[in-house]
Amino acid sequence: MAFGPTANDSFAGNWLDGLHEGGKDGMELVLIWCLFGLVAAIIANTKGRNGYGWFLLGILLGPFALVIAFLPSMDRKTIQKAQHQGEAGDFKKCPYCAEVVRKEAIKCKHCGSNLPPPSSDENTNNDPLTDTNENYKNTLAYKAGKAWRNMTK
């Protein structure tokens, strides 16, 4: 009687044997997880998201990826908020047709009207590290970004 692992005792061999002992259970499990990935990819693709990434996410997370894929995107929430309030996030309402367009737009994609330029009182600087908001400067994200900028100069 030998102590310890022998030549026939490998982890992969035991794992594969376990898949075959129960019949098709292992293969069915793999197919079900691939199906989760496929459904998540289809849902994400219809919402304008990356289908390949969501396929991999669906395989890794299974049914949880389906739940996440069904959640509305942040842009959709912001568009709905802009529709009700006139402006939200990166979106604003067209003054001529009342459809939501991006703030940077100079022409409405819905009615073709020329849009007024963004007001000068808005902070048009897209660099958050030069933002003058004092509350933001106290956050960990700001300090980490500032440290990273100093390290990469």
Feature tags:
single chain, 3-stranded antiparallel beta sheet, mainly alpha, 153 residues, 3 strands
Fraction of residues in helices? 40-55%
Give the CA-CA distance, first to last residue.
Answer: 65 Å
Point out poorly predicted stretches.
none
- Label the overall shape: flat
The ordered H/E elements are HHHHHEEEHH
Identify the quaternary structure here. single chain
Helical stretch tally: 7
From the helix content, strand content and strand pairing, which structural class follows? mainly alpha
Q: How many strands, what sense, and barrel or not for the largest sheet?
A: 3 strands, antiparallel
Cα Rg: 26 Å
Beta percentage is: 5-15%
Q: How are the strands ordered across the major sheet?
A: 1-2-3
Arithmetic mean of pLDDT? 74
- What is the β-strand count? 3
Can you walk me through this structure?
The chain is mainly alpha-helical. Among the domains are: 51 residues, no CATH class; 45 residues, no CATH class. The protein starts with 10 loop residues before the first helix and ends with a helix. The model has no long low-confidence stretch (mean pLDDT 74).
Task: State the gist of this model.
This protein has about 150 residues and is mainly α. It has 7 helices and 3 strands; from the N terminus they run αααααβββαα.
Secondary structure topology:
Blueprint: H1 11-21, H2 25-46, H3 51-61, H4 63-70, H5 74-85, E1 87-88, E2 91-93, E3 100-102, H6 134-137, H7 140-152
Antiparallel strand pairs: 1-2, 2-3
Helix pairs in contact: 2-3, 2-4, 3-4
